[in-house]
């Protein structure tokens, strides 16, 4: 697959994997950090939904 034709989320995932691998980040450290990032973005997503719902 030509990465230039890939969806934005796939491109971002490839970039993140490369960043972690190039910097020799341990698997457990990467997974822990990614879990924190996921939780943060889910919280932000929830806040955005609440904000949009309350403004209707």
TrEMBL record:
Pfam families: DUF2496. InterPro entries: DUF2496_YbaM-rel. This is DUF2496 domain-containing protein. The lineage of its organism: Bacteria, Pseudomonadati, Pseudomonadota, Gammaproteobacteria, Aeromonadales.
């Amino acid at each position: 697959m030509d990465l230039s034709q890939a969806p934005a989320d796939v491109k971002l995932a490839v970039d993140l994997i490369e960043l972690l691998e190039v910097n020799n980040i341990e698997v457990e450290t990467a997974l822990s950090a990614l879990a924190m990032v996921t939780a943060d973005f889910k919280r932000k997503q929830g806040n955005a939904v609440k904000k949009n719902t309350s403004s209707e």
